[in-house]
Specification:
The structure is a homodimer. The first copy, chain A, is globular, with a radius of gyration of 20 Å. With about 350 residues, chain A is α/β, with parallel strands linked by helices. The relative contact order of chain A is 0.16. The interface between A and B is large, with 56 and 56 residues.
Chain lengths: ~350, ~350
């Protein structure tokens, strides 16, 4: 109890609170301090989570030797500076996904991770959902056979609610809209399950949102291992989170109620994984072990800081997920023409060892 | 009872039997005669369905003045000759989907329909499924709001079973494989629901089938009305038939157990349409009136022959569905680049009044 890993959330908005609740569901992490430029927000955050101290500047937070790691939930376009500053101050960094809004920024972050040797984790949490872990087991032991089609959707209504005072409203801060915020989860999870995406074909449309970013994006992925994948993301409907894998021996259908996304310890109660073998008219529900993706990834980060775990999703995996996002945007600009993910990554000058 | 419409199945394979059972579930149609080149097959078909007579040649069948219409289930690449011969002999024609395997053939068929003035119907049956009819009502009365994403899948294991003695094995007879056989249903139904498809972006892959045709096809559709659509079709997994519509007011999810596809009077027992409004964690099952798509389309055809109904799916609708299929194949050849459906239709020389 006295040896909890001391973390400090930075950027104290809605998502910082979701992650703070995740961290506090376990007993290995301490929310030791926190920082936001907004003093009222700092005070409210301290009160909500019982955090004894906060810093009045980011420099002050990073100068505190007791802080072992920071939890970054600032806007995507600020990730580079916020993360690199922390790494160079000798802190481990957990950042919410995506690693950055551009591959250039992601590359700079990855270089700083490499240069400083600090622990670095990216919150591609959805691959930790119990249903996806089970899918991976079915793939590994070949119960599902060979995959031909993998289809995923992640959608909600956020695009309809965007106003000019939020950074997600703007194309330069949140390029790709629904896809960089939601689709990026499936971009990571599908690569976790099926290996690297080779090329991407996509269309992005701005249909009903008043913001600058697309609220309807569809992408076809070609995996190096052969199968075709699909990611649909919308920002103009009730929430959907689903993934179907169609295999030569069986299908697996995963469906999660997005209403409970933020409460990741309850997500399993609101999700179903169903299997379908040949000749079965009624799909069977697959029993899933209970998980808690936000808690799990933060605890893994904490253990990694102490040298007792390896971070599952670091710069390499995060660059691959962002590479798919950027290829989607590029393909959409080219009217759907296939774009190689590696080409996009290399053109952005990303260190070849990452891609 | 004595005034039943007298129909004659031509091409007496598996699908002719499915349709014959559909026709016999009602009491307005009489299977009056039948024809296949294979005499044993004719005899067996007569016995199975209690059909009093058969013809030993197609010419003989068409020369029988009592035959009012033929039901064509011959291979796709034979449709043109079989259909035109019947039309020119003064018979009404119902043909299984697709109308033909090429737009050139479809155009010739459409011209013959126009020249002869005969009743002509194409078996795009899936739009008649109760779930899709209900979706249309939700679209028409705006309960679902505006659609951003429409996602559909139709897959089964047929590609794994194809052998060189079946016409579906060959690229020149069944171009597009899974997509022309299964995806074409959604190509019609989605256009029934959302209006014409403007452009198509697609990838087709031959992964596990030994045949010449693709067993994994994914296509993104851009509708003239704005939304994006997706059709996934595989031929290497247990059967899937689904369609999800994501709207600004609600989502609708339709799922049908493919195992019961052939028994269309039971399909509603094995399908569910669920609605999802904002804030609802449990999706509500939507009550569906009972339907029987194969019976319904044949009875409509029979009534149309007697001038008491209009055919819902004729040459125009069937050309539009086939246009999407051909655009999918063209886009896949062009590495996913968007292909205008109208361009593909016009380049095939199709009469502009059809497209």
């Amino acid at each position: 109890m006295t040896d909890k890993v001391r973390l400090a959330p930075v950027g104290l908005g809605r998502w910082a609170r979701v992650l703070a609740r995740g961290a506090q569901r376990g007993d290995t992490l301490e929310l030791y301090s926190c920082f936001s430029r907004d003093e009222a927000r700092r005070t409210a955050f301290q009160a909500e989570f019982g955090i004894e101290r906060s810093a009045s500047s980011y420099e002050e937070l990073l100068a505190d030797p007791a802080v072992e790691g920071v939890i970054v939930t600032t806007p995507n376009d600020t990730h580079k500076d916020v993360i690199i500053q922390a790494l160079e101050a000798g802190k481990a960094v957990y950042t919410d996904k995506p690693i950055a809004h551009t591959l250039e920024d992601a590359n700079r972050i990855a270089a700083a991770v490499s240069d400083t040797g600090q622990v670095f984790a990216v919150g591609h949490s959805s691959r930790r959902l119990s249903g996806h872990r089970e899918m991976k087991r079915w793939l590994d032991d070949r119960r599902i056979g060979d995959i031909s089609l993998a289809e995923a959707n992640f959608s909600n209504e956020r695009g309809l609610e965007l106003t000019p005072d939020t950074w997600r409203y703007y194309a330069d801060k949140s390029p790709g809209g629904a896809f960089i915020q939601l689709g990026v989860h499936h971009a990571d999870t599908l690569q976790f399950l099926l290996g690297p995406v080779k090329s991407v074909t996509a269309h992005a449309r701005k249909l009903y949102t008043k913001s600058e970013v697309p609220d309807a994006v569809m992408a076809i992925l070609e995996f190096e291992s052969g199968p075709l994948g699909y990611i649909g993301t919308g920002w103009a409907s009730p929430g959907v989170y689903s993934m179907n894998l169609l295999g030569t021996k069986a299908n697996l259908m995963y469906d999660l109620d997005f209403t409970h996304w933020d409460e990741s310890h309850l997500a399993d109660d609101w999700s179903t994984l169903r299997s379908q073998f040949y000749g079965e008219s009624v799909r069977q529900q697959v029993e899933l072990p209970r998980t808690d993706m936000f808690r799990e990834q933060l605890e893994e980060f904490g253990l990694a800081i102490r040298g007792r775990a390896t971070v599952e999703v670091g710069a390499v995996e995060a660059v691959r997920a962002l590479g798919v996002v950027r290829a989607v945007l590029e393909s959409s600009k080219r009217d759907g023409q296939a774009v190689l993910v590696q080409e996009v990554i290399h053109e952005a000058g990303v260190d070849p060892s990452l891609a």
